[in-house]
Design brief:
Residues 50-361 form the Sulfatase N-terminal domain. By secondary structure, the protein is α/β, with parallel strands linked by helices. The protein has helices spanning 11-16, 75-83, 96-105, 134-140, 211-225, 249-254, 261-286, 323-326, 353-360, 377-382, 486-502, 540-553, 555-572; strands at residues 4-7, 51-57, 85-87, 90-91, 144-150, 169-173, 184-186, 192-194, 197-198, 201-202, 232-237, 293-299, 330-333, 342-344, 348-349, 390-396, 419-424, 427-431, 455-458, 466-470. Helix 5 (211-225) runs parallel beside helix 7.
């Protein structure tokens, strides 16, 4: 019998406890706007392919949007979602690179070799060059394609860059996180470089401009210089609201009553991003695109709860396969939607955008084999049933194996020590180590370190390696049914076996010293020649040996890093 305990019980927990009785299907917190029957009439006919604007935010928590009951102000997102279709059964991946790779390829990460972790700045790795990307398919359909923001799909060769993978133009960063003003990124002590690029060149002249503003301004400039008579695709991948927590002071001032410093800065960044979306929407209308446009909004993974984010009332956080890590904020806003102003519970996954958007663009999918995504436009626009019935969240053979997992626990067909997760219908199965598993209420009222530990914790899961939940009835993953329903466990394990047979080897090569920014004029960028072959190191043994070497060399580095982080935290608490 599961034993629950409230640790660090506080006023925050009491105020937040009301969420526990939230009926997931009740539209109280995810409210629909009253709909006039006349508004459900058919939209303007698709006389030409629509303009597509895909907005992806970074590390925005499930709770951190106004229409999910947040204390953070997001009036633009709230209005766009209310006038469009809210996707409340929408799934993404738990970390950056996997979500982006699945969006761009329409394939699960087990089918691109990117099923482990993220692409590190010094790794000779990138999105496989044999994959035909979403922007390439849209180019085939006659679209002008542009990317603004965070790439994080590898850059060790020039062939890996956005402008070589289907985008006509690119302004943004290649690595996973940069300073919002200086665009510096450090991948360890003394391994720092500048990371803002215009096309394939380093954009030194843009330093000092806050990235959220810079990216929104670039989108407006693209729209102003393009003809609305010609179809356009713009992929806007904000680095907001990923760490470092930085925002213009005027936005922080709005949240001065928030006691928790990290939450205050995070909230300011979310609101700033919301205003950037407002400016993009305004530009669509000003320059004549809006009436024939489709705006898709998506987060890339769950919020990082110890950096200001909140996924409440979901379980877990960024980097985990609990719902707090993989259930995303998503909506579609478009005058072309037939049934607007509603909430959709159709099952949708980030891989679905590839076939959905190519189909909207009247592109050709007949020559693309092996897609894991589905065309979900009829489900979104007309309220039809989703063609998707299951989601492979992932199978990661390199992640730390659970101590108490075994082939025996997996009925002799699956080693439950392996980190994996799958959803089939209303059932969700997790094996191995799914990641940090607590329920963490929004941190808003206190300003001391202990405030981070006002959480509800499950205390009996340390010796487990298999979990089963009925996500429809239990979206917060509170009632593990693995022992009551071994038949369902076995059935879902068989699905994991099926998918695992189709997986390709993991692409996770060792870091290459040639990647150091000092060898590239002080900036992150491609370092390998076109003739250099790809490096493959996928074995668990090689990964362990590399980690041991790093640990031996970096004891002093870790000490320096600790004091640097401590100093940063002390300085931030003064604000």
């Amino acid at each position: 019998m599961a034993v629950y305990a409230l640790t660090g019980f506080s006023l925050v927990s009491l105020l937040s406890f009301g969420y526990l009785s939230w009926d997931w299907m009740k539209p109280s917190l995810v409210a629909d706007v009253a709909t006039d029957p006349m508004e459900k009439s058919l939209p303007p006919t698709f006389t030409r392919p629509p303009h597509i604007i895909f907005i992806l935010t970074d590390d925005q928590g499930y709770h951190d949007v106004g229409y999910h009951g947040s204390d953070i102000q997001t009036p633009t997102l709230d209005r766009l979602a209310a006038e469009g279709v809210k996707l409340e059964n929408y799934y993404i991946q738990p970390i950056c690179t996997p979500s982006r790779s699945q969006l761009i390829t329409g394939r699960y990460q087990i089918h691109t070799g990117l099923q482990h972790s993220i692409i590190r700045p010094r790794q000779p790795n990138c999105l496989p060059l044999d994959q035909v990307t979403l922007p390439q398919k849209l180019q085939e359909a006659g679209y002008s394609t542009h990317m603004v923001g965070k790439w994080h799909l590898g850059f060790y060769k020039k062939e890996c860059l956005p402008t070589r993978r289907g985008f006509d133009t690119f302004l943004g960063s290649l690595t996973g996180n940069v300073d919002y003003y200086t665009y510096d990124n450090c991948d360890g002590p003394d391994v720092c470089g500048y990371d803002l690029h215009e096309g394939e060149d380093v954009a030194w002249d843009q330093s000092g401009k806050y990235s959220t503003f810079l990216y929104a301004q670039r989108v407006s400039k693209i729209l102003a210089s393009h003809s609305p008579k010609e179809p356009i695709f713009i992929y806007v991948a904000f680095q907001a609201v990923h760490t470092p927590l930085q925002s213009p002071k005027e936005y922080i001032y709005r949240y001065r009553s928030m006691g928790n410093v990290a939450r205050r800065k995070y909230a300011a960044m979310v609101t700033c991003m919301d205003e950037a979306v407002k400016n993009i929407t305004w530009a669509l209308k000003k320059y004549g695109y809006y009436d024939n446009s489709v705006i898709v909004f998506s987060t890339d993974n769950g919020g990082q709860t110890f950096s200001g984010g909140s996924n409440w009332p979901l379980r877990g956080r960024k980097g985990t396969y609990w719902e707090g890590g993989v259930r995303g904020i998503g909506f579609v806003h478009s005058p072309l939607i037939k049934r607007k102003r509603r909430t959709s519970w159709a099952l949708v996954h980030i891989t679905d955008w590839y076939p959905t958007l190519v189909s909207l663009a009247r592109g050709n999918l007949s020559n693309v084999q092996g897609l894991d995504g589905y065309n979900v436009w009829p489900a979104i626009s007309e309220g039809k049933e989703s063609p998707r019935t299951e989601i492979l969240h992932n199978i990661d053979p390199l992640y730390n194996h659970a101590k108490h997992g075994s082939l025996e626990d997996g009925f002799g067909i699956w080693n439950t020590a392996v980190q994996a997760s799958i959803r089939v219908g209303e059932w969700k199965l997790l094996t191995g180590d799914p990641g940090y598993s607590d329920w963490i209420p929004p941190q808003t009222l206190t300003n001391f370190p202990g405030s981070w530990w006002n959480l509800e914790r499950l205390t009996d899961g340390l010796r487990k390696s298999v979990w089963l939940f009925n996500i429809t009835a239990d979206p917060y993953e509170r009632y593990d049914l693995s022992e009551q329903r071994p038949d369902v466990v076995r059935s879902l394990l068989m699905r994991l076996v099926h998918y695992n047979r189709t997986a390709i080897p993991v692409r996770y090569p060792a870091e290459n010293p040639r990647a150091h920014p000092d060898f590239n004029g002080g900036a992150w960028g491609p370092w390998a020649s076109e003739d250099d072959g790809e490096e493959w190191e996928g074995s668990r043994e090689s990964l362990k040996s590399r980690n041991k070497k790093k640990k031996k060399k970096c004891k002093i580095c870790k000490l320096r890093s600790f004091f640097r982080k401590l100093n940063t935290r002390l300085m931030s608490n003064r604000i």
